[in-house]
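Lab notes, practical 5.
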Amino acid sequence: MTPIPVLFSERPSVVISAGLSQAWRLLGGRTPPELDAAALRSWSQPGWIKVGMQFRLEPRPPGTFLCTETRVVATDVRTRRAFAAYWFLIRPGSGAIRRELLRVVARRSESRIGPPA
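Output from the prediction step:
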């Protein structure tokens, strides 16, 4: 579950979410419009960041590799500066949350397959 809408899903291997955000604003800022990929690409109204998140599963011996990637681009210089200050403050916590998420996924998936033979 993410506040960024899912744009593409190819179960079980890929989920891509993308949308607009004002994450650095108190209470998350204005409610963003939901846009398809083309509209998001062309969006240029100042005061927003475009956020893309991908979760991808890749089969690799001896199991499966889970990869996450997040990309952010601001629509203007002032917003880029505001987001940079926000990111400087929350980055350590965001990284810790992402690592914990990956640990939980690994623990749950490994408990389903049992110990190695």
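Observations recorded by the TA: The first strand starts at residue 6 and ends at 10. The two ends are 35 Å apart (CA to CA).
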